[in-house]
Amino acid sequence: MPQQNTSAGTIGQWAAMMQVVLQTLYAGVTIIGLATLPAPDVQIQDPWFTLMELLILLMIPSLVVLAAAFHEWVPPRNRVFSLASLIFMAGLVVVTALVHFPVLTLSRLTPFSAHPEVFAFTWPSVVYAADILAWDVFFP
Which of 31, 113, 114, 115: CA 20 to 30 A from 13? Predict the structure, then answer.
């Protein structure tokens, strides 16, 4: 049996722990955001929405690290599957970053706030469609 890469295992464990912590925080913030909605048909309001966006941007790097560590630990005969998973995870991270960073930084600026068809997290909008692509197509 081939020698396992212990540094990949250690890094993978740290990435997994980061995911547990950040996703738990994300779930808590989402619950609070939903509980404080002024009406059921309204988006989650600030500061909860901004916190959710920041947590997503903090989560995504460790998703790639976790997938890379997993790829290192998979037996060689199964590496094609873990490589595909790593590539899909990278796609998810790129699209997610391209969605959430502009929403966080640009969507509130006057020239951009006038374009809900691009920046609103409601259907139909560009960022909503891209987010669906990231999490419903690329998520392994």
Answer: 31
Residue 108 included in any domain:
yes
* In a domain? residue 1: no
Structure-token match 């890379």, residue found: 68
Element (H, E) at 138: none
Sequence-separated contacts (24+) of 52-56 with Cβ below 8 Å: 52/26, 53/100, 53/103, 53/104, 54/104, 55/22, 55/25, 55/26, 55/29, 56/26, 56/96, 56/100
Domain ranges, residue 100: 6-138
The Cβ-side half-sphere exposure at 128, using a 13 Å CA radius, reads 11
Q: What is the pLDDT of residue 3?
A: 58
Tally of domains within the chain: 1
Alpha helices in 36-132 (DSSP H): 48-73, 79-105, 110-113, 116-119, 126-132
Confidence (pTM): 0.85
Q: Residues of the chain whose pLDDT is less than 50?
A: 1
Q: Of the candidates 33, 25, 140, which has an alpha carbon nearest to the alpha carbon of residue 82?
A: 140
* Assigned token pair, 69: 């560590």
Tokens of 127: 């960022």
